[in-house]
């Protein structure tokens, strides 16, 4: 595209991420005390750099969910040809120069807007999730100007039946919403049944179990903090083939996520996915 549109002349030459561009500037060396011969490498985008450590695994039967302000899914076994631009899919280029099918969704900001100030300050419990489903409260996309996996929904987000929710229930509603939207984003890249969640949502106790329930898939939470060298505990095992780092914790969707009718409630949510495409009322 850049070649066809003539943009390539405006861009720096493409280099490998690990190519040495040269030494640091002498002024930087003086200001920092670094050795003047310190090399400067091309470098790589932050999400792609994080993705690199998962490539150490021997198989590609997984999809990575990198969470933060954005959700970016990486499916190393996906098909680039199957991507649909309308669903906010793209390719990221890994450190080896290979395209990786990805989808995007502004999950952090959407979560904040659904949870509201009260929900952001509260903790959600399984009982809160059950209450939200029982009350029929819903969040419909999208609350930012990025529709993510739901085309045409930018800026159309709305809450239904949420006025009387307690603080914990508002957070639970936000968790349900982002779990359902994540499910759609995973569909957009033909995600594997083994999911690895990295970043802030891996620390959220209910996100993994809810995603496992919605997706009916294996979900692993990479709960290692960057630069965290603490010893793993029995509650954070490192399984063979699990993601690198201090620990990976598997979660599933059974009764740990609440009373039995929670799963029935999630089963009612799942068919709404088709209606989300056109923004229809549930």
Instruction: Report the order of strands and helices.
Output: HEHEHEEEEHHEEHEHEEHH
- Annotation field: number of helices: 9
Q: Indicate the proportion of strand residues.
A: 15-25%
How many beta-strand segments? 11
Oligomeric organization of the protein chains: single chain
Instruction: Tell me the strand order in the biggest sheet.
Output: 5-6-4-3-9-10-11
Task: Show unreliable segments.
Answer: 226-247, 253-266, 268-282
Average pLDDT confidence is 83
Query: How much is the radius of gyration in Å?
Result: 21 Å
Share of helical residues: 25-40%
Sheet with the most strands, sense and barrel status: 7 strands, mixed
For the terminal residues, how far apart are their CA atoms? 40 Å
- Structural class of the secondary structure composition? alpha+beta
Q: How would you describe the shape?
A: globular
């Amino acid at each position: 595209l850049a070649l066809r549109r003539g943009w390539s002349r405006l861009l720096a030459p493409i280099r490998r991420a690990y190519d040495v561009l040269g030494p640091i500037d002498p002024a930087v060396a003086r200001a920092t005390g670094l050795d003047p011969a310190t090399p400067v490498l091309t470098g790589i985008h932050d999400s792609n750099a994080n993705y690199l450590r998962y490539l150490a695994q021997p198989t590609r039967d997984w999809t990575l969910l990198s969470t933060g302000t954005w959700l970016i899914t990486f499916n190393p076994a996906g098909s680039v040809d199957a991507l649909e631009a309308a669903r906010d899919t793209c390719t990221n280029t890994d450190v080896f120069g290979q395209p990786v099918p990805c989808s995007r969704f502004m999950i952090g900001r959407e979560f904040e807007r659904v949870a509201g100030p009260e929900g952001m300050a509260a903790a959600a419990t399984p009982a809160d999730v059950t209450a939200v489903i029982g009350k029929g409260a819903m969040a419909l996309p999208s609350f930012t100007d990025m529709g993510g996996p739901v085309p045409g929904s930018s800026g159309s987000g709305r809450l239904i039946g949420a006025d009387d929710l307690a603080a914990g229930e508002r957070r639970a509603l936000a968790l349900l919403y982002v779990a359902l939207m994540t499910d759609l984003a995973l569909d957009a890249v033909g995600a594997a049944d083994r999911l690895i969640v990295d970043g802030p949502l891996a620390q959220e106790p209910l996100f993994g179990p809810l995603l496992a329930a919605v997706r009916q898939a294996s979900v692993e939470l990479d709960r290692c903090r960057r630069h965290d060298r603490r010893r793993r505990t029995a509650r954070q095992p490192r399984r063979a083939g699990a993601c690198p780092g201090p620990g990976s914790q598997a979660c599933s969707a059974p009764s740990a996520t609440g009373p039995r009718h929670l799963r029935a409630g999630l089963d009612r949510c799942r068919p709404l996915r088709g209606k989300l495409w056109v923004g229809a009322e549930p």
